Amino acid sequence: MPLSEQEQRLLEEMERSLYQNDADFVATVSGRRGRPNYTQIVLGSLLAIAGVATLVAGVIVQLPIVGVIGFALMLAGVLLVLTPGKAAQADATASTSGSARPAPQRKRSSFMDTINERWERRQDGDQGR
After folding, report:
1. Per-residue pLDDT tens for 107-126?
2. How far is CA 100 from the centre of its chain?
3. What is the radius of gyration, based on Cα positions, of the chain?
């Protein structure tokens, strides 16, 4: 079922407001991560594999400290793979800071205030009939 014109306008207004007011969120969700750092991915994968091996070895020799160290290595490896490199973070920061427009200085009502005002106008219009 397609959206009505009013719903499309409201959706576009919400998108514009999101892009203007929350540039960090847009940068996070937009998917612009840049090129992957293959060295970081390989090192993180090797570290995670070593962590799993150390964890299993700790279980075999029944030493909890070895298992905890293995888990920490595994966690560090996964975090290394999943976090973007410094170059990708710099690219994302540069792309969002250039596209973000400064917010106008006039007082803005929040989205919910606007919706509430529209609802009240509709209710007042229906009671007059």
Report:
1. 556 787 888 888 888 878 76
2. 17
3. 25
